[in-house]
Design brief:
Pfam families: ECH_1
Catalytic activity: (3Z)-decenoyl-CoA = (2E)-decenoyl-CoA; (3Z)-octenoyl-CoA = (2E)-octenoyl-CoA; (3Z)-dodecenoyl-CoA = (2E)-dodecenoyl-CoA; (2E)-tetradecenoyl-CoA = (3Z)-tetradecenoyl-CoA
Structural class: alpha/beta
GO molecular function, one term: delta(3)-delta(2)-enoyl-CoA isomerase activity
GO cellular component, one term: mitochondrial matrix
Strand content: 5-15%
Subcellular location: Mitochondrion matrix
Largest sheet: 6 strands, mixed
Helix content: 40-55%
Bound molecules: ligand LGD76KDA
Radius of gyration: 18 Å
Number of helices: 10
Order of helices and strands: HEEHEHEEHEEHHEHEHHH
Length: about 280
């Protein structure tokens, strides 16, 4: 089931290609909302956690959009109320080694496809974005977050008994500075919107992030020549991406070695139980 139709005027081949790809996919949809502006909408209830298939699907959609020269701005959003993305699907961490490798490879690819997108990307966060949910936002060029104080954003991995991968920690440092990142990484701080704005983790708060993101895209960002935006991105991101490609295999090995440790597995199972207990209390 496809949640909403793709519409790229005068791009019939691409539409067909997309539809073919998406026929077995259910967790994201793509739609052109204004000439040159595409919404990529995440919909994987209950919390848009990034499972193997969700990472792969999001990547595939981004790759299709990358090839579409008529699209120059991507708005990444969720249609689950109160949630942007809950980060990586923790259940994936308890899978056998082969699956873990496939999972992490798909997550790495998603980072490449989003952080490395030549288009201008805006994260429209109407809800919480912990851990890899925060990675999705950090990979975008601009972040608009809801002003609703229930929403939280940050890298809380340490509270799960794990650590963010080096490249995600680096994204945090690049965005908020080394000292703030250092503190927030080991504390696992999840920031309320006003705090996130104060440290520069998000760029704007708005009661309607989607509306604001579209307004920014059309009234501001599209006025800057597309090639200039893309070249500026290359200036600031190329070095990080090159390094990431060099370290990709080592990063995969680090992940598998780390996550399969008995102590880490015990901690993760405990964390999942905490989440379930919290839900039962509601
Ligand atoms: C040289 C360097 C050396 C170091 C190398 C180290 C390398 C190691 C690398 C390891 C890296 C690991 C990276 C991890 C990144 C991550 O993304 S980890 C995931 C972190 N995410 C979270 O902690 C979020 C947890 N969830 C929540 O806080 C809340 O669910 C929410 C705020 C998102 C939403 O709250 P609410 O709306 O109240 O929903 P809930 O009732 O809590 O949940 C509903 C439902 O969803 C399940 N769920 C929630 N989050 C996840 C998740 N991330 N994965 C899987 N499932 C999740 C929750 O259990 C409920 O499930 P049931 O309905 O009960 O089945």
């Amino acid at each position: 089931m496809i949640r909403s139709a793709l519409s790229y005027p005068s791009k019939k081949n691409l539409v067909l290609q997309c539809l073919r790809r998406m026929s077995s996919l259910v967790s994201t949809s793509v739609s052109e909302v204004h000439p040159g502006v595409a919404h990529v909408t995440m919909h994987s209830p209950p919390v848009n956690s990034l499972s193997l298939s969700f990472c792969q699907e999001l990547s595939q959609n981004l790759q299709v959009i990358h090839k579409d020269k008529s699209i120059d701005i991507i708005l990444l959003q969720s249609d689950i109320p109160g949630i942007f993305s809950a980060g990586l699907d923790i259940k994936e961490f308890t899978q056998p080694k082969e699956r873990l490798m496939e999972f992490w490879t798909a997550f790495q690819q998603l980072y490449i496809d989003l952080y490395g997108a030549s288009q201008t990307t805006i994260a429209c966060m109407e809800g919480s974005a912990p851990a890899a949910g925060c990675m999705l936002a950090l990979s975008c060029d601009y972040r608009v977050m809801t002003s609703n104080t229930k929403a939280k954003i940050g890298l809380n991995e340490s509270l799960l008994g794990i650590a963010a991968p080096p490249w995600l920690a680096q994204q945090m440092m690049d965005t908020v500075g080394s000292r703030v990142a250092e503190l927030s990484l080991w504390r696992g701080t999840l920031y309320a919107p006003e705090q996130a704005l104060a440290i520069g983790l998000v760029d704007e708060l708005h009661e309607n992030p989607r509306e604001r993101a579209l307004e920014l895209a059309v009234a501001e960002f599209q006025k800057i020549p597309r090639q200039a935006r893309a070249a500026s991105k290359t200036l600031t991101r190329q070095k990080r991406l090159k390094h990431f490609h060099q370290e990709r295999q080592a990063d995969l090995e680090h992940f598998v070695n780390f996550i399969t440790q008995d102590a880490v597995q015990t901690q993760l199972r405990g964390y999942l139980q905490q989440l379930a207990a919290k839900k039962n209390k509601k």
